[in-house]
Amino acid sequence: MNFTDACDLLEGNSNIAIRKVPNPAQPNSKAEDARRIWNAATSIVGTPADVYLARRGIPLSRIALQPNLRFAKLKFDGSEALHPALVAAVRDVRGEITGIQRTYLTEEGEKLCVDAKRSLGTIRGGAIRLSSGGDEDDLGAIYLCEGLEDGLSLLRLQGDAPVWVAAGAGMMEAVKLPATTTNVRIVPDNDFAGRSAALRAGVKFTKQGVFVHLNRLPDEFKDYNEFLLHHLASPVSPEADPGEESGA
Question: Which residue intervals define the domain Toprim in the entry (predicted)?
Fold first, then answer.
């Protein structure tokens, strides 16, 4: 472009076509924040998170080492004070960390409040992966549930396959399964939202060629952690499977 063309362009008299260069893709800042928190977090052994899990019937001594669970002290909803938090990594189907879920606690290992969970980053489509202690690359069969405590309870009672936690009932149908997964056992919470979400997820996965089991708890239990705690308090050993419905 010469000087005359440049002047015409500035005055709006030019016929020169202007090609707009698109802005480069911006990184997901919330996902980056989630990864920073995760990278700074530490082992949960001997922390309030360790105590919290033991109170829920899932002490670390009874489940395999969980590489996707860590501990941190973080601000809660903008407060200046730092609170203990159980931090769970959410990974996409490739295994990359895209977000975290934080369960805020007291120093004594209790939930900080009724609504103590907060997510950060990209959660939809991913899952908190819980290890059964076997071959982590063997994802042919997995359990899928809503909440972290339920997933860890499944590990304690079942332990025969990895457990993926969707971090919410509405997230279950969005979970992207590996191409190698051929069998999914869905264990929802025992309420309308959980059962409805499980049915939607089951239909979707079935259309993808995955064999789906829908497990339903007995009516008196609201979720799998409550089922576990009840049977731990019972003199009768807990059954391995609370019941099963037909495939979706």
Answer: 142-232
